[in-house]
What does this fold into?
Amino acid sequence: MGRAAPSDQTAPTVRLAETGDASDVAELLSQLGYPCTRDEAIERIAHLREDPRHYLLLAEIDGHACGLISSHTRYSLTHGAELARITALVVARSCHGQGIGRQLLREVERRARRDGVSRVEVTSNVSRTEAHEFYRRCGYADGSLKFVKTLGD
It folds into this structure.
């Protein structure tokens, strides 16, 4: 990261993230508003790679990381079916407007269909109004209101 924006002529590739991608993952998570060190990213990537119900995908252009998406598949009691939840989606600031976010969403959706999942959900902080519009443009509808309680002693 921190390199010049990739050329517009090269299409992004999407692949599973590996522990060697930790610096890029940490930078992208920090851009999303969740500061993360390289060592923390190594642990997080390793944890997700151990569980086949998690995907952490990295988008690259010309070998440079330009975005990531993570998802988790679980059984929903209320829907009586498997559902996938997107837990993070970020595109590097230098790469906005190139269709990378949409490509990452499509890849999660493709993997979900392949895995027999019929529903994909995503939550987004109430302040991220541009993200909300992006999800709507990608076919996602407004859903449930989410409540959060941080547990700490």
Observations:
- The chain has one domain: 13-137.
- The CA atoms of residues 32 and 90 lie 6 Å apart.
- The chain has four helices and five strands.
- Residues 100-114 form the longest helix (15 residues).
